[in-house]
Amino acid sequence: MDLVPALEEPLKKVLGPATAKVMAEHLGLHTVGDLLHHYPRRYEERGQLTHLADLPMDEHVTVVAMVADARLHTFASARAPRGKGQRLEVTITDGSGRLQLVFFGNGVHKPHKELLPGTRAMFSGKVSVFNRRLQLAHPAYELLRGDSEETVESWAGALIPLYPATAKLESWKIGKAIQTVLPRAQEAVDPLPPGLREGRGLVTLPEALLKIHRPHTKADVEDARSRLKWDEAFVLQVALARRRHADAQLPAVARRPRPDGLLTAFDARLPFTLTEGQQKVSKEIFDDLATEHPMHRLLQGEVGSGKTMVALRAMLATVDAGGQAAMLAPTEVLAQQHHRSVVEMMGELAEGGMLGGAEHATKVVLLTGSMGMAGRRQAMLDLATGEAGIVIGTHALIEDKVQFHDLGLVVVDEQHRFGVEQRDALRGKGKQPPHLLVMTATPIPRTVAMTVFGDLETSVLDQLPAGRSPIASHVVPAADKPHFLSRAWERVREEVENGHQAYVVCPRIGDEEDDPKKSGKKKSPEDEAEKRPPLAVLDVADQLAKGPLQGLRVEVLHGRMHPDDKDAVMRRFAAGDTDVLVATTVIEVGVNVPNATAMVIMDADRFGVSQLHQLRGRVGRGSAPGLCLLVTEMPEASAARQRLNAVASTLDGFELSRIDLEQRREGDVLGQAQSGARTSLRVLAVIEDEEVIAEAREEATRVVSADPELTEFPGLRVALDALLDEEREQYLEKG
Q1: Residue 42: what are its φ and ψ, rounded to 5°?
Q2: Would you tell me how many other CB atoms lie within 10 Å of the CB of residue 246?
């Protein structure tokens, strides 16, 4: 395989160290292959290029024109008081209109020598207005010398690719570098099996690279993109299919609950019947637990759809079958919360080994980092002896010292907060790999689930349990209509007078130093609202207690409080001793206080769509209707306001996650381990390309089951190795 090194050659050998350094630092491009996969963001048609008559304001443009005249002025200024300041004004024309270019200070010397009247060049910069005339200040330019027609042709063809660029490296310099390495595209090894490529009528990889960087027609671009989308989808799905295949080869202990054991006793205690959805999903889980391969299942559901109940029944089934179950929560507040609600739901069934415990009872222990030594030691002893059937904890569960008697099931809450090492460390504590159930409270569109959690089977809970109340959500435009905000606080008082409680959520805690360096020089109304530091819990709580909520019992809760204090605050709130809890997003998941009916989210525009949906799910958990008020200072036309309107208009988390994705694209979804350009999806859009992803998954599964080691597909193996450099491997694991 001598062909691979052509694309693995470092850019500094090909382009020179200076350019290569900028490409590596600013664009994350290191090899010829990386550069070939740096695709154009869009294409300009050459006709569009040359019309100076209709330049758009504030946009970055590239024009081909001729210098009409150039004048150097000197002037006095604060920096150059003796009239030594220099300004070069150059007028360019392309026949359709004229445009002024300006250069200042030391930047005038080179253009003064080069931009002589009659010179043709390509200019690129941002269009602004000065003295009511359009101008480009300090544009980058590229002279078109004797063979100018030729240069413009080679540059332009019919479509000029515009690349994702940086201030240090203009699009055309990237384009030039790509032209230098483009001949090597012929040596690209094709990852798609020939049968698949031909069956779907896709062009070869070298041809796709050529067409995406040097298209002659729009059809060329389409051909290239549909081929490159398949590469991304297929290679990713093969990676996931191989993980599924490898996991399916592992042995696990089948866990079948006893017919009249703990689970039966628990179900008999329940004061309500499970929803159809809960019963269906429980059956899927029990079927998986009964097999001799480890279950890998993703349980996703609407906020408040009863995921915890489904997970708890799976844990009880495992205990019935002689194993132990561990639930891993992302924060101490949440671990304590889960522990409390599990013990409450189980009643005497959670009092194994104690007086008054039921006959099938087991022990439910809590293990977190901040527990006292004695409590910790006892919990660890209960786990090692098997006395405790269920343990709920934070990362503390993963420490080497923690040993299990027979770990059968791991439930991970809010998967995206756990790295692979942690998931594996916990799975490594079983004598054989335990079954794994991952819960996520952010509903994920099917295709994203297939791309991100592709190694997990998915169960969806989309029904809300009976007795849940609808939540009314409204946007409160504090800047446009200040009286709406006053009304919001009145609504909170009304809820409290009716015997209910309320949350007020803020983006910051308020005891951190404000960073003066972070204030930008922006001036639009949106930026003005953005410039103010986000509202903070400590300030807001203080203002509310002295102002609109005077006389009510207001408390604060945030992540930097001592765990005991946090727990005490939560207990007081749950018991109804606090009227209003002013908190950060620590209440985002799992907090369950049915009497809390109202939530006011300050600076709501600083939160993501799914986060707002999560937060809102903390109210309306009882029989009284919930109210969620999204307070913002963003102007009506802003994207942030549209996002908030979307949240206010629907309670369907799956719909919201689609909106969220369409706005953010998938960079954020595909894991935090993506280091810049190299590992993110470039042409595949998870929502738009649903069909490609679904088909690629089927093809990948077929290829992997026939040839798990991919011995027949050397090109695919090379592409996989490139995708699964270490960082990517971890991202896949993190899900």
Answers
A1: -160, 180
A2: 12
Which residue matches tokens 């960087």?
213
Query: What are the phi and psi torsion angles at 389 (to 5°)?
Result: -85, -30
Q: Phi and psi (nearest 5°) for 411?
A: -110, 120
Separation CA 404–CA 425 (nearest Å) = 13
Q: Give the C-alpha separation, 34 to 22, whole Å.
A: 14
Low-confidence ranges of the chain (pLDDT < 50): 1-4, 47-48, 50, 148, 155-157, 514-526, 529, 666-680, 726-735
Q: Return d(Cα 553, Cα 581) in angstroms, integer.
A: 9
**pTM for the full model?**
0.66
Q: How far apart (Å, rounded) are the C-alpha atoms in residues 102 and 518?
A: 29
Task: Name the nearest CA neighbour of 615 among 474, 442, 489, 394.
Answer: 442
CA distance 391 to 407: 10
The structure tokens listed for 639 are 């994207």
Query: So what's the pLDDT on residue 562?
Result: 84
DSSP per-residue codes, 2-63: TTHHHHHSBHHHHH-HHHHHHHHHHH---BHHHHHT---SEEEEHHHHH-GGGPPTT-EEEE
Strand partners, 102: 89, 137
Find where tokens 């007078």 sit: 497
**Rounded Cα gap, residues 23 and 169, in angstroms:** 8
Starting from the edge strand earliest in sequence, which strands make up the sheet with 363-367, in order? Answer: 363-367, 388-393, 324-328, 407-413, 435-440, 296-301, 457-461
* Proportion of the chain in helix, strand, coil states, percent, rounded to 5: 45, 20, 35
Q: In 507-525, which positions are buried (b, 16+ CB within 10 angstroms) versus exposed (e)?
A: bbbbeeeeeeeeeeeeeee
The dihedral built from the CA positions of residue 189, 190, 195 and 198, taken in this order, carries a sign that is: negative
Q: At 496, list the tokens.
A: 């409290």
Contacts 24+ apart (CB under 8 A), 586-589: 586/331, 586/333, 586/557, 586/558, 586/559, 587/333, 587/503, 587/505, 587/557, 587/615, 587/618, 588/614, 588/615, 588/618, 589/330, 589/334, 589/413, 589/414, 589/441, 589/614
Q: Say if strands 42-45 and 159-162 run parallel, antiparallel, or are unpaired.
A: antiparallel
Q: Token match 């988390």: residue?
A: 653
Strands 85-93 and 98-104: antiparallel
Taking the C-alpha atoms of residue 705 and residue 503, their distance in angstroms, rounded to an integer, is 51
* Cβ-proximal residues to 350 (8 Å cutoff; 6+ apart), any chain: 342, 343, 357, 361, 362, 363, 364, 390
